[in-house]
Design brief:
The protein has 637 residues and is an all-alpha fold. 62% of the residues lie in helices and 2% in strands. The protein has a three-stranded antiparallel beta sheet with strand order 1-2-3.
Length: 637
């Protein structure tokens, strides 16, 4: 019996596409959505002209165009997987990979997945527009160009095609045009016939060397040597960032290697499955025992495809960025943007490893929005883990704008959106914050500019229409649910100061030391929260009494009682706490903590001993006492 393997590429492609699509939606939904927030595509002549003013301009345009569809993560993931499936099919066709070896074509696709999903914190720093789709779109163009050259049978037409490819393709796709020329040259040498084996490589060599040099004089924003690399991601060429280049280097290497494999034209492969014929006279009942035997070719097909898919899966897994804190930060900011503060706390409750300071600050902000900070601020996992990246990343670039906006530091939010827009390119997220901070600062004409821009996008028209109402009718601003939680913190006049890009330190000091102007109860609560984190006793008492004065009828929250009881005992006599109405559970917890400390915290540096720290966390991890003594060496970034 004969069985065709012609449909094997389709089966492999569809199966792996379903798996990758599921992984994207399960693990990277927030990354997909944030990618389009940190992207901007406009259907305007001015935007298109600006993109095309740099080499590889069309790559930037198309990548930004596709990225905007991740506004709906399911749609963005579908586009990504669809393009990767198309790359898979083109690799099979361009390099004439037999259908019974189709799994090999998934290796370059896996490396493309690695190129996209290695992004991590580059999401906030990369200057490549539409990075998530950039490599995929570029490789599709590259393979399509090679396939178009292969489809031309006459050498003269192939030579003319190369001239057009380099002349037109380089300003549109930059480096990837040059690499397409390299693949064509190698294919001509390895698989060509007659004079084309000499002429084609020679034309490609001239195109690769000369065309970028000539086009250099048409651009004003690129150095001469770097124009050859136009279209590649804007990673630094340093040892520290070599890991980001690795999937790209392996991708290019895999395509070169495929040139030298499967040199013969692809033909339909047929595998035989040998079915033994029953012997005459054999008992009828034993016919079922004779099973078909797999031929040697069938076994080779299984081994080749299984091995290739395993290698591809390992490569994709290795380069796929999987840091839990990074994904937690994305989830928290997405929930904060939707004013789903309970979801922020649900995410914080699931935290298993030491959180970054951004996670801690987002959690504290959500608690303050819900009026639960004084009761629950120190019941969650705390700490100051470093961001898991070799990049010099700052909290400002990841979530600082969101924090400044929600803490009513509108000038700082606007300033950093403006600076990052100039440095990294304008993004939807920047324009939204600039519009909202302008509205809250009563700069309605300024806000109108950003609303006009956002109204031209495909997916943010509804958002722009919502905030247009506040420009048209200023009285609606104070009635907005989101603005109502922010305006009470807007308690300052015109002033000029700096944060040195250290968001947390600036906010802590600002709220804890602002005594020169009229405040609100919400502002006083934020000040006391910040004083607790600073652990400065005189600053605490100043904010404690200010909070008590602005909340005369409210019960003093648990953590504020714990801090007052602790500091009153650490510095007896400075503030009389004997008449303060501490609740019984607070005093009992404090006594238990001090007794346990005498028994276990032995040594000058006991607070940094991980064993002792864990013992105390198990018993007192939900108290300010634990935070004060054991959360140490936390650095702002």
């Amino acid at each position: 019996m004969k069985k065709s393997t012609k449909k094997l590429p389709l089966i492999i492609g569809l199966s792996l596409a379903v798996v990758v699509y599921a992984l994207l939606l399960i693990f990277e939904k927030e990354l997909l959505f944030r990618s389009q927030e940190l992207n901007l595509w406009l259907p305007t002549k001015m935007w298109f002209t600006q993109r095309m003013a740099a080499p590889a301009g069309m790559l930037s345009v198309l990548s930004s165009f596709f990225t905007q569809f991740t506004y709906f993560p399911w749609l963005g993931a579908l586009l990504l997987v669809g393009l990767w499936a198309l790359v898979f099919q083109l690799v099979c066709k361009v390099f004439t990979i037999p259908s019974n070896r189709a799994g090999i074509a998934f290796i370059p696709v896996a490396l493309l997945i690695g190129c996209a999903m290695e992004m991590g914190y580059w999401l906030f720093l990369i200057k490549t527009q539409g990075y998530l789709f950039s490599a995929t779109v570029a490789v599709l163009f590259m393979l399509a160009a090679v396939l178009a050259w292969q489809s031309l049978r006459k050498p003269l037409w192939q030579y003319l095609f190369l001239v057009v490819l380099f002349a037109v393709g380089f300003p549109l796709f930059g480096f990837y045009t040059l690499f397409a020329g390299l693949l064509i040259a190698l294919l001509a040498i390895v698989r060509g016939e007659g004079s084309s084996r000499i002429v084609t490589p020679l034309l490609c060599l001239i195109g690769i060397a000369v065309v970028p040099f000539v086009y250099y004089y048409a651009y004003t924003m690129v150095r001469q040597g770097w124009i050859y690399l136009a279209g590649l991601p804007h990673f630094d060429y340093t040892k520290k960032q070599f890991i980001f280049w690795l999937p790209y280097l392996l991708l290019f290497l895999s395509l070169i290697v495929l040139v030298f494999c499967f040199r013969k034209p692809k033909t339909e492969n047929v595998e035989e499955v040998v079915t033994p014929q029953p012997q005459k006279g054999a008992p009828k009942g034993k016919k079922k025992a004779n099973q078909p035997k797999l031929s040697r070719e069938t076994k080779a097909t299984i081994c080749w495809n299984t091995g290739a898919i395993v290698v591809a899966a390992v490569l994709a897994f290795l380069f796929w960025y999987k840091d839990a804190n990074f994904h937690t930060e994305l989830k928290m900011e997405a929930a904060m943007t939707k004013m789903d503060y309970k979801k922020v706390l649900n995410i914080a409750e699931k935290q298993k490893k030491e959180p970054t300071r951004l996670i801690v600050m987002a959690k504290n902000l959500a608690l303050m929005k819900l009026g639960r900070a004084g009761e629950e601020m120190f019941t969650y996992l705390d700490g100051g883990a470093k961001s898991n990246t070799p990049l010099d990343i700052r909290m400002m670039q990841v979530g600082g704008k969101m924090l400044y906006y929600n803490y009513a530091r509108f000038n700082f939010c606007y300033r950093w959106c403006l600076e990052d827009g100039v440095e990294y390119g304008w993004k939807v997220e920047y324009l939204k914050y600039m519009a909202k901070t302008s509205i809250l600062s009563s700069e309605y004409e300024v806000a109108q500019k950003y609303i006009n821009t956002l109204s031209q996008t495909w997916f943010h028209k509804k958002w722009a229409a919502k905030y247009q109402k506040y420009i048209d009718d200023h009285s609606l601003v104070a009635k907005d649910k989101e603005f109502a939680t922010i305006l009470p913190l807007y308690c300052y006049g015109d002033q000029l100061d700096g944060d040195n890009s250290l968001v947390e330190i600036y906010l802590l000091n600002y709220f804890a030391h602002s005594f020169n102007h009229v405040t609100t109860p919400q502002f006083d609560e934020a000040g006391l929260m910040c004083a607790l984190v600073l652990k400065d006793i005189p600053t605490f008492w100043s904010n404690f009494f200010r909070y008590a004065k602005s909340h005369p009828k409210d019960r003093m929250p648990k953590h504020f009682q714990e801090a007052a009881l602790l500091f009153g005992n650490l510095e007896p006599g400075k503030v009389d706490i004997s008449n303060m109405p501490f609740e019984k559970p607070v005093t009992m917890k404090f006594k238990a903590f001090m007794e346990y400390a005498k028994q276990n915290a032995i040594g000058d540096d006991a607070e940094r001993d991980p064993v002792i720290k864990q013992k105390f966390y198990e018993r007192f991890g939900d108290t300010y006492f634990y935070f004060y003594f054991f959360i140490r060496d936390v650095k702002s970034y």
